[in-house]
Amino acid sequence: SDHMENICGYLMKYTNLVTGWQYRYFVLNNDAGLLEYFVNEQSRHLKPRGTLQLAGAVISPSDEDSHTFTVNAASGEQYKLRATDAKERQHWVSRLQICTQHHTEAIGKNNPPLKSRSFSLASQGSANSPGVQRRPSQNAVSFFNVGHHRLPMGKRLPIMQPDHLVDVREMMSQAEGQQRDLIRSIECLPASGHLSSLDQDLLMLKATSMATMNCLNDCFHILQLQHASQQKGSLPAGTTISWLEPKVSLANHFKNGAAQNFPAEINKPASVREEQSIAEPCQLTREPEEINPDEELEDICDDKEDDLGAVEEQRSVILHLLSQLKLGMDLTRVVLPTFILEKRSLLEMYADFMSHPDLFVAITNGSSPEERMIRFVEYYLTSFHEGRKGAIAKKPYNPIIGETFHCSWRMPKSNVATDAGTDSSAHTLSEQGTLPKELEGQAEPDYYTVKFVAEQVSHHPPVSGFYAECVERNMCVNAHIWTKSKFLGMSIGVTMVGEGVLHLLEHGEEYTFSLPCAYARSILTVPWVELGGKVNINCAKTGYSASINFHTKPFYGGKLHRVTGEVKQNMMNTVVCRVQGEWNSVLEFTYNNGETKYVDLTKLSVTRKRVRPLEKQGPFESRRLWQHVTESLRDGDIDKATEHKRALEERQRNEERLRAETETPWCTKYFLKDGDGWVYHKPLWKTVSAAQTQQTDSN
């Protein structure tokens, strides 16, 4: 029923990342149009801890799960709330929406809406008429007449006063209703025939009309914030002007004739999310595990991602998905269809950036700070090509919290570049007397070993930590990366927030570096990847730095995958090396002495990583964790892959809910929080420092 009802009760309220969710006692005051909350029911007679005016507010059930919803006030303030179950959420949402509508209409009674022409949907002939005898995708948009609102000639738009926002809201409500009518009219068409509900032009019309309404809603939200700031002199504390989350769940837009044939990933409840943790922690140890490289075998898996079939076959699904996205929208919480996934986890993708370990180990062999910086730049620029699996832009699995990946590489010492007149095995730790205890007394092998470990240390935000070391060469790299993805129209952009540090312990040098942004372009046709943005590499001790620009392709002309950069001696402000070329093809290094060096990435030898067999991996290790999803994707069984993926997500949700209810923090396994970053629990610089201290004490 639509009657006004005062309700009260306990809800969970999200405060911030530190405090998280807290139980609070909420009261809906219909007479005053207020939503108030108190610490508990006993303090209800005291002053409320917080109050929201519901006039002009937007009440939105969240797509995170079936319990959460948000109350967005006209002032810009937002409450993120969670009920005990879906039924209770529906009760609160319906009562709040009725109260909001009542008080919003009351404000607008003295200001009737502007007159406007109505929006109409009309069929332009029947399926048997000559005008419809055509290829279904041609001029499908002309099947509908879309009227436009116009202002009378000679009249200027009035200055927007707060009361006039009510007019705008009413007009937008009409437009939203008309847009829904448009969607219904399209979905009522037959699934096959001359003009079907799956017509490509009509699907595009659905997507663009939804995107337009979402954009208008965002603009209206910004106008509300501006008026609030004019009334109060400034924006409310903590208010930010940003893109809002979608107000319509994905499931509501897949009801046409062919919806039942779409992968279950799209139709499943939006509460299923990949960012939460796996179940049964009490049965699994979180103690760090020492991986023996001798147990690892050379990887024989070669999953290339060149198959376009799935993308072509599922284009209608992509169009449906695009109808829910908005420019600038954060895609962290969007569950993407299974068929666009790579057959590996993001953690393994980071490992694949180390596929030229000979170039990595050769960095420390440079005879001078200048040469070591140039070698690092060369290794850095050659790492991205092998990190991609094929030319098609696909998305690796989102790691779940606690997921890990281990591997290693072995390369003959003779393959590692050295300085002129320097033996490849020179400067080893054994000669320096700082060999770690576990290697003492062992015969030195004729190869170098680089060990790698990665862990998903956080799910909100999604942060991965990874660490690689070569004990024999006294060097290691530690990094943490937070991936932020956004919808950019016909592209998806991924920003790599974070920092890496390369430690050359033999020289006492640290090289800090960042990562470029990645873009998936042409997501409706043949999706492809390009890198963009400026990254910096710095060594504070030596004063050398590098500035590298990954250039995105201009709209007209220009080359793909272009990169330029320079290595500089900061104290003398001198450029010692310039680099240009393509990061997936040929790079040209020009030195200040006039010499030029070319590196053809397509001809560089790739060292296969070594991975433990699945039966020896722990349940949290990437390949074992995702093995059923990967096998189903290899077999081309998208539905089965989706089911396995959904099972993982259900377990993650349950465990996350349990941790929230018991206020139990997540404990990482290999990485420790260090300020804003994450550091490996047993880095080489600590091991070597301890060994040197022990040797000094014994002397």
UniProtKB/TrEMBL annotation:
Compartments where located: Endomembrane system; Endosome; Golgi apparatus
A Pfam family reported for this protein in Swiss-Prot or TrEMBL: Oxysterol_BP
Cellular-component GO terms for this entry: cytosol; endosome; Golgi apparatus; membrane
Alphabetically ordered keywords of this record: Acetylation, Endosome, Golgi apparatus, Lipid transport, Lipid-binding, Membrane, Transport
Comp. bias intervals (Polar residues): 117-137, 416-433
Keyword Lipid metabolism: no
Top-level taxon in the UniProt lineage: Eukaryota
Record region (Disordered): 104-137, 416-436, 638-658
Swiss-Prot/TrEMBL GO biological process terms: lipid transport
Role according to the record: Plays a role in regulating ADIPOQ and FABP4 levels in differentiating adipocytes and is also involved in regulation of adipocyte triglyceride storage. Weakly binds 25-hydroxycholesterol. Interacts with OSBPL9 to function as lipid transfer proteins.
Quaternary structure (record): Heterodimer with OSBPL9.
Protein name stated in the entry: Oxysterol-binding protein
